[in-house]
Amino acid sequence: MKRCSLLPILFLLTLPLLWAAAPPLAPDTLAELGEIDLEVALAPNQRAWAEEIAISLLTVGPGDPLHAWFGHSALIVDLPNGSSIMYDWGIFDDTQEHFYLNFARGRMYYYVLASNSGWRIAEALEEGRDVRLVELELPAEVKWSLSAYLGEHINGEYATYLYHFYDDNCATRIRDIIDVATGGEFGRWAKSQSTGKSTRDLIDPYMIHRPLVTWALSALQGPRIDRSENRWDAMFLPEELEAALLDFSASLGSPVVKKSTIIAENQHPRLTHRSSKATALIISLSIALVLLILTLTSQRAKQIVLALFYLFLAILGSLLLFMMLFSDMDMTYSNINIAVINPLLFIPALLLLFDRRRGSIIMTSFSVLTIILIAGRVAMPSLFIQDNLSTLVVLLPLYLSGATLQRRRNREAR
């Protein structure tokens, strides 16, 4: 009877958490962009100078560190005096006080930095990353105003901004600037174009080369990243920004792209052919095989392995709970995974580590909940706005094995 009653209690306790989070802080925007006068009257000498200015989008492909997995965007302004300035909105300081706590709370402050474009490009090439330039075809008045704005912006009140991975980052900042430079035409075009993909689909190819990290990051994110994205919203990815700009220019009678230059390409290939669901199934089967071998060889070793898995999941669940309730990371809100990845997993983990003979019904409840969620996701996908099948498939053998082990140990204790 206790086992039967725990399941609905566990599920009902987690339901309020799906709506408990407070709304996140509104992302910072380039509010001052509206003050840029794109029709400024230029004197002849100013016009001659402005016509020689070149403004280019720099796209750097993925790199090895986690923060470089998704690539990078920057603006380069080449002035007639020979200087080439790179404006980069992707700068952060991991030595600042409470950096990791602020990261978990979703309060990451990034800032814009102006530097010499030559050595920044050389640095990307040394890292073996793709590097491409797209020079914009803009009127002299627009180039004059944008170059003046960029020069002032790095020292202004908006030089530091509240970073959001999907809504406000190094690529979206440049997207907004390009939209202003085109009189809003870029935005109107992009918002009318569907990608046919969700945010989760868009980021998977950049992460799948590290399947376990991908699984953990995916588990922490809820339905916010399962909505279908138009091309405007998809431009949080640098390569999506570049592709959209080229397609937008090709669709116009008077293109906004003057030329596109490939400096280096295919330096850092990604595993784009493997889906996250197929990868999750492989991980799940691998876990099941390892647990089966341990069942046949050493029950104590199996206990320790399961305990370590549950400890990891309990920590992950604690982090998820914290971010759902106390952070501004809206991508973690309303995450149904909190029902099956939560701090209660510390209990079976400790029981297994200390080889306690008292069985726990928690793993049975977690197993049943996982099976119910998988069945619902497969049978009625339209009712589940969160695509968490990859998460659940990996959890299933861990929970079923734990429930089976506990029942066997209970019988032995008698």
Protein topology:
Layout: H1 2-14, H2 44-51, E1 54-60, E2 72-78, E3 84-91, H3 99-104, E4 108-116, H4 117-126, E5 131-136, H5 140-153, E6 160-163, H6 170-181, H7 185-191, E7 194-198, H8 199-207, H9 211-220, E8 228-230, H10 231-234, H11 238-250, E9 257-264, H12 276-297, H13 299-326, H14 346-353, H15 362-379, H16 389-413
Antiparallel strand pairs: 1-2, 1-5, 2-3, 3-4, 4-6, 5-9, 7-8
Number of helices: 16
C-alpha Rg, in Å?
Answer: 26 Å
Q: Specify the biggest β-sheet.
A: 7 strands, antiparallel
**Straight-line N-to-C gap:** 19 Å
What form results from the Cα inertia axes?
elongated
| Classification by helices and strands | alpha+beta
Unreliable runs: 1-5
The helix content is: 40-55%
The count of β-strands is 9
Oligomer: single chain
SSE run: HHEEEHEHEHEHHEHHEHHEHHHHH
As a percent range, the share of strand residues is 5-15%
Tell me the number of structural domains: 2
Mean pLDDT reading: 86
Describe this structure in words.
With 414 residues, the chain is an alpha+beta fold. The chain folds into 2 domains: 2-19 and 275-413; 36-199 and 228-264, no CATH class. The protein is 50% helix and 14% strand. The protein has 16 helices and 9 strands. It has helices spanning 2-14, 44-51, 99-104, 117-126, 140-153, 170-181, 185-191, 199-207, 211-220, 231-234, 238-250, 276-297, 299-326, 346-353, 362-379, 389-413; strands at 54-60, 72-78, 84-91, 108-116, 131-136, 160-163, 194-198, 228-230, 257-264. The strands form 2 sheets. It has a 7-stranded antiparallel sheet with strand order 6-4-3-2-1-5-9. Helix 1 (2-14) packs across helix 15 (362-379), helix 12 packs antiparallel against helix 13 (299-326) and helix 13 (299-326) packs antiparallel against helix 14. It is elongated, with a radius of gyration of 26 Å.
